[in-house]
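Q: Could you write out the predicted structure for this multi-component system? I'm mainly interested in how the pieces pack against one another.
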Amino acid sequence: MKTLNFEDLIQFRKKAQANLEVRELSYAAVSDKACGLAVGTEHIQLLCCGGTGCKASSSAKIVECLKAVIEDNDIADKVEVIVTGCFGFCEKGPIVKVIPDNTFYTQVKPEDAEEIVKEHVIAGRRVERLLYLDPKTNEHVSDSKHMDFYRKQKRVALRNCGFIDPENIADYIARDGYAALSNALQNQTPEQVIEEIKKSGLRGRGGAGFPTGMKWGFARGYQAEHKYVVCNADEGDPGAFMDRSIMEGDPHSVIEAMAICGFCIGADQGLIYIRAEYPLAVNRLRIAIDQAREYGMLGKNIMGSDFSFDVEIRYGAGAFVCGEETALIHSMEGKRGEPTLKPPFPAESGYNGYPTNVNNVETLANVPIILTKGADWFASIGTEKSKGTKVFALAGKINNVGLIEVPMGTTLREIIYDIGGGVKNGKKFKAVQTGGPSGGCLTEKHLDIPIDYESLGAAGSMMGSGGMIVMDEDDCMVSVAKFYLEFTVGESCGKCTPCRIGNKRMLEILTRITEGKGTMDDIEHLKRLAATIKDTALCGLGQTSPNPILSTIDNFYDEYVEHVKNHKCRAGQCKALLTYTVNPEKCKGCGACARNCPADAIMGDVRKPHVINPFKCIRCGMCQSRCKFDAIQVF
Amino acid sequence: MAKEMKLACDVVEKIEAICDKHGNKPGELINILHEAQSLHGYLPEEMQRIIARKLNIPASKVYGVVTFYSFFTMTPKGKHPISVCLGTACYVRGSEKLLEEIKRILKIEVGETTPDGKFSLDCLRCVGACGLAPVVTIGEKVYGRLQPKDIQKILEEVGD
């Protein structure tokens, strides 16, 4: 393959688009429920999700089986199996989508492959049992456009995920890939591109929300022999996986954006700092980088211009603090990932002392489409101060776990109840945690605020990278605060005292409270310590680490008081505050509890009600899980 | 770290080759450690000293980096490394109870390996299969939607 110049790229795109046309048209065509099935001579594509979530449920095996059945039936010339990135609807994965009729099969197993091919592809009958069952109407829904999960979503950063083959650059080019880079190199000055990004209102999606165009402008302002563009792919927030999904499903969008950024700030080298725990994303990026080089989208004299830029991958090694840009840069230099004071900002002195611009994956994925569709288009989405969309990883006690993308300004209620399908098992909603270990817990009263950077901050939480965990009545909010603090204490780099020692003291206090040994003074101490840490810690990790505690004290004060004064945990999560007893009316005396009790705390004669010795009981819950008669009660 | 097995000659040679490949540059330390660990499974003291000598930096510097990042380990892993996901999504769906159950059955703590070398136990933060929460990974395989009562059977299956 010879490298493409500007003119070749246009020709190549035309050819690639013809291949993708069947997919484009089928997405556009679905407008009503009665959509016909494709049978006979048409070319059929089976799109299988190859994201990490679906791969964990053996989607690779499904692909294998589909291919084998197609081969056996001699229809390989008409039917194609394509592995895509994440469709987002992880709760119902693995997902197989049939093009051109857009049938969306959920929870597919390898053994279903034969039926899909024989029934759907050959006989032209949908496999009803694999369709999504709408819990409201109890009817099968055959395409994603008519599912509540997708209805309110707007896919901008995820535009290509679940649509293109991430290991094929032609698919990306067909979707106007590398058009923004080619246009910038041919027709624009770096200043014009930066101005366009500024005008779009794009802000950093990694958490802090700093305006991207401004950041690029700063890096451009410094003169140096070398400059670097760094992609922060060290997604460390436990429960957020949007960056990984983008890299797995649409790696070229990140690479193209890095090249555009390089052109704007005058850099010749890009570095992607990625978690070593993301093997699939690393692999897809490697393939994408190789293809981009082969086609002349990276390397010397890109598309025949005088701009040269290349991208390399650097591995993280599991440290949450490396999400902070100065810590990330030190880690790339082979050192401990400890943050340093700003200024100097990386724009002035970053990687190896050279000016460096660090952007998050999702931020970068927005860049090419802003430039092809225009800043005004992007700025028309969202709220006054937060433009565009945001990807959230919706998880926890919710019916539809998955990766969603909504316009800024969507309310939490719409996300949880319309897209998420409400709380799991009909339980009562208690809280939603946004922003991960740096964010806070929001309650019922916050459900109707339109989400953007400012509103979430004002409510005591933050946008963060986009983790969104729903909690129900069985979750103890003191334990949740403790859970996040345990994380921060474990991940604190230890460089500054407030974070290293302060968080540890807070964790000790919280542990006391969850064991029923806390005092009312402890709650006040927590507040004071939290305020001190927020004011004095060196980097973002420490400054935001008290947020989960402050927001739970604010919104669930009575639960803290209950732990302290009544020694009670209403959610039944704090083990030390529980009492296990046997209900003598339900107990049949089978002895299953006594046999399985690791502490020998249960006594009783056969066929007579048993008794638990509270002094020996270690509250492990083993008896409860083994009792077939529901006779173990917990208070 | 007093008691230390001597590394085999070919391992030493390979480690030195990895350092050479990266030009013995201190800036490549993390990449070198990644390769060394994937070669040998863990990073014992002796290996860290070899790397320090090759890169011409103090051994304390290498040790500082190894102990800073959770991905690097100085103890050998079991034949079947178990990781319990303690990401938030798994946590609220009960992954702590899975961890307790595994500890109870294998009689080891987090970071330890069973005496027979079969299993080692670790925690990790989010494998990204939140739709399957709570999740445990054993080797490359992901087990999802688990309850404590499933653990015994899985461990027996894997251990055989």
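A: Regarding packing and overall arrangement: The longest helix of chain A spans residues 6-29.
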